[in-house]
Specification:
The structure holds two protein chains of two kinds.
Chain A: E1 12-19, H1 23-30, E2 41-48, E3 57-64, H2 70-79, E4 84-89, E5 92-98, E6 104-106, E7 127-132, E8 137-140
Antiparallel strand pairs in A: 1-3, 1-4, 2-3, 4-5, 6-7, 7-8
Helix pairs in contact in A: 1-2
Chain B: H1 16-33, E1 46-51, H2 57-68, E2 72-76, H3 90-98, E3 103-108, H4 113-120, E4 125-130, H5 136-150, E5 157-161, H6 168-179, E6 183-187, H7 196-200, E7 207-209, H8 212-215, E8 221-224, H9 235-244, E9 260-262, H10 283-301
The chains are: A mainly beta, B alpha/beta.
Chain lengths: 155, 307
């Protein structure tokens, strides 16, 4: 019999195939903090994965009673490009899709270069080109620098 | 291939063919830049020279280039007198200046400023240096200097020495040089060596060393940059390093007879004055070359014809 470490959820979202070690950053993207948890959130860190290219491990986050908006999904793609978003309604899979990292990122992260013009109160959104999908690597379209840590610079 | 109305923000925006085109037109501009021939081919046009940071060479050479083609120049030389000091955004300043001229030349202390200016300006923008970022016209005049001296950049052995970590000019220069198939050697103390990120993107594998005397005899071009004292917490460490890379006639004794020595200037004591009189010294010619190269860009971008 298959053993479930975490029970299936009735309604909500399962974020599966998160790059191992990134689950806590996914929680950051979801904006989870001590004041706003009003449904069960299960976090699995470093569970075995059979999917190719994962190194044999993944993280999983299950959020009950919440479906994610597209902007949140785009942010998850920035740190876990192989993640899948599974929407559960009444214990069944209603929708399942892999996150996609678009070739250009607008407004989701700020440039890590403090001297970049986009960090100087100018009326522009930060823009990045994705120069590598795995690990996701972003280059600022304004100052040409490679973003050092995506998670520290999420907006 | 047309440069009409094109922004020049980073050397990365240009391919080899486009760079060669600019260098070809630059060569045509030399007699005009020297004052041997005269033209008013771009008469009636206005250049907005916006320098938010002190600069002598770049500002003057853009101004001179403009005058040699009959272009009028408006500029702001004292930034503290402008609305910037009142908190106006660069975007608003650019929109305003854009309405007063046909082309903007921008030097700014923040990286990415030129790209931002290009976004808000209807007229073309030339980046004259943005913070520690790009300085494409410097790269173009460096390439022009090498090309004039060597005829062919392909296969040339270019040795870069000095501060390769923070030196703004060297990063875009090496990108362009590899585009042209030059062989590169980086000579710097470990703490000021070319960053890995810059090496990674290069075609071919450069040679890294901290000993200039080991590589100077094979060099075709010696590109010297200033090592800034403030990069070293310990002054004695600075003195040791700067002394090692001082170029004098003794150092050049082992060099090829047609080696050219370049420097983006200003120099402090990296090159001894005794080198100035030797055929190796090309740094003053290099500074002059800023004029024909910038003339070529103005001419091509503003749609000049007939020269």
């Amino acid at each position: 019999m298959r053993e479930f470490k975490v029970a299936p959820i009735r309604n909500g979202t399962v974020i599966d195939h998160i790059t191992a070690g990134q689950a806590l950053n996914v929680l950051k993207i979801l904006g989870v903090n001590e004041y706003n948890i009003d449904s069960t959130i299960s976090v699995l860190i470093r569970v075995p994965s059979k999917k190719d290219g994962t190194g044999g491990w993944k993280d999983v986050v299950k959020v009950e009673d919440r479906e994610l908006d597209p902007k949140t999904v785009d942010k998850i793609a920035l740190i876990a490009p192989r993640a899948t978003i599974v929407i559960i309604r009444d214990y069944s899979v209603a929708e399942k899709k892999r996150v996609t990292l678009s070739p250009t990122i607008f407004g989701l992260v700020r440039c890590s270069n403090p001297n970049c013009i986009t960090n100087k109160n100018e009326p522009v959104q930060p823009e990045f080109d994705v120069v590598s999908q795995e690990p996701p690597t972003l280059r600022c379209r304004y100052c040409d620098r490679t973003l050092s840590k995506i998670t520290d610079n999420l907006i | 291939m047309s440069f009409y109305d094109k922004d020049i923000i980073s050397i990365r925006d240009l391919n080899r063919e486009q760079i060669e085109e600019i260098l070809k037109v630059s060569e045509k501009m030399v007699p005009y830049a020297m004052g041997e021939k005269k033209t008013k081919v771009l008469e009636g046009r206005i250049l907005g020279n916006l320098f938010f940071e002190p600069s002598t060479r770049t500002r003057l050479s853009f101004e001179s280039a403009a005058h040699r083609l009959g272009v009028d120049v408006i500029d702001v030389s004292e930034m503290s007198m402008t609305s910037i000091s009142k908190g106006e955004t660069l975007a608003d300043t650019i929109r305003m200046v854009d309405a007063y001229c046909d082309l903007i030349v921008l030097r700014h202390p923040h990286e990415g400023a030129a790209r931002l200016a290009a976004k808000f300006s209807e007229n073309p923008v030339i980046n004259a240096g943005d913070g520690a970022g790009s300085h494409p016209t410097q790269t173009l005049l460096d390439l022009f200097t090498i090309k004039r001296a060597m005829k062919d950049i392909d296969g040339a052995n270019v040795v870069l020495v000095g501060d390769l970590k923070y030196g703004r000019t060297v990063h875009s220069l090496v990108e362009a040089l590899t585009m042209f198939g030059a062989k590169l050697t980086f000579v710097a103390p470990e703490t000021l060596q070319m960053p890995d990120d810059n090496i990674k993107g290069l075609r071919g594998k450069p040679l890294l060393t901290d000993k200039l005397e080991d590589v100077i005899q094979d060099a075709d071009v010696l590109y010297v940059t200033r090592i800034q004292r403030e990069r070293f917490p310990d002054p004695s460490e600075y003195n040791k390093v700067s002394g090692t890379y001082r170029i004098d006639n003794e150092m050049l004794r082992e060099a090829k007879s047609d080696l050219i020595v370049m420097h983006p200037l200003p120099r402090v004591d990296e090159i001894a004055p005794e080198v100035d009189g030797t055929p190796h010294a090309k740094y003053f010619e290099q500074a002059f070359n800023g004029i024909p190269v910038r003339m070529a860009l103005l001419y091509m971008i503003l749609g000049g014809e007939g020269l």
